[in-house]
Amino acid sequence: MRAQFVLSEIGVGLRRNLTMTFAVIVSVALSLALFGGALLMREQVSTMKDYWYDKVNVSIFLCNKADAATAAKCAKGAVTRQQWEQIEADLKKMDIVESVHHETADEAFAHYKQQYGDTAIASVVTPDQMQESIRVKLKDPEKYKVVATAFAGRDGVESVQDQRNILQNLFDLMNGMNIAALGVMGLMLVIALMLIVNTVRVSAFSRRRETGIMRLVGASSFYIQMPFIMEAAFAGLLGGGVACVLLLVGRYFLIDHGIALADKMQLVNFIGWDAVLAKLPLVIAIGLLMPAVAAFIALRKYLKV
After folding, report:
1. What is the DSSP letter of 73?
2. How far apart are CA 302 and CA 156, in angstroms?
3. Residue 200 in contact with residue 298, Cβ under 8 Å?
4. pLDDT of residue 222
5. Rounded distance, CA 196 to CA 184, Å?
């Protein structure tokens, strides 16, 4: 009988405050969708870092004839065979180095033509203008500075570059987007909490006669508060469900279909469905608990029991 009464009171409360309940559902859904999206974005950045940092190399660019005339570091002339063989030998002695590959000017030119063969500048570039380089695969990409310090000033070396820097701007942009999403999520969360508190306050005021009678007949504080808490929890649960749908639909249309980033950006290792599904229970739990806790706190002030 008590459970039936509580459920009937929940239905009455939702009907009386239908507009505000809808606003709570929408605000909770948007804030939790942004929260879930921010978690997925952070995981995507981490996945991309693990994937690409494992593939990038440290490139030691060697002086050619053109550099000897223009670059101060190559003032002693183009690299000699003895110099680059010594560099390779020293690299192979380092514990942090996994592999070493010497790319000749002809190989560099072939790769350049493969990448930029359709551009206007590619038609005027010649093999002798390309730099020889030594591609170094490190066991730990974070130890780039060890190689840079050891070889940057050597004769025949024009520069030492860490290819991670090419990707770092992309990762910084994605991290910035993630922080922006968290900021908007925080704002939406505050709005949702304010709506929840206001909805509970209005609901408690509109049913002050019923709660007064319940107090007179000896009902416990928890029993009086339960319908209000359950109303807020139910609205939050619906909002969490909508947020889960938004995350699933977003993953489907952004990556697999619609915009289909997976087809357009085949070099990017996108997070899978398992990563999205793993976040849904957390979104549901927050959607259920957050409004219930907010309602409980609000009732201590607005419902004198």
Report:
1. G
2. 78
3. yes
4. 66
5. 18
